[in-house]
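Readers of this paper often ask what the protein records in our data store actually look like. An entry from our holdings is shown next, in its original layout:
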Amino acid sequence: MPRADGAKPEGRLWAGMSDTAQQPAPAAAEASESTEASTESTDSAPVASLLPWRSNRRDADLTITVYIVTGKHGRLRIPESFCRECNLFVRAADVAAEQVEADVEVRVVSWWTHILSALRHGGYHAPVMVVGNRRLCQGYDVPTTCEVVDAIEAELEQKQ
């Protein structure tokens, strides 16, 4: 904290910092707030649906369900380091859904509270990805975007 006479206190916190680093300009502060808000929305951990009976289903051609153990589960937040594959599964599903011309919904749900439906599809080791009603992969078997796109197209052909 600056002293009353305007001199900087000596110490570890102020040692290598310039005046601009200590007091950001108002325009820079606004820009950093907007950057933080955009970074927070894109880099945030996935939020899993906790309640198995609550669904926000919409009319989509196909649904990809990803059962994860990391991220936000209500008030509980499990760090990504617990299971690095969870975010990779969600990212692969999101990218594949954007590449396909059909309307594909990606649902991210908690493996902890949806374990019975995960087991029904043969997903005993999280994360689990279910395309339509078929398990595509689980555990350490991280799918590529091409594999997910192929599974989406195969499932859509089977529906027709």
The longest helix spans residues 26-43.
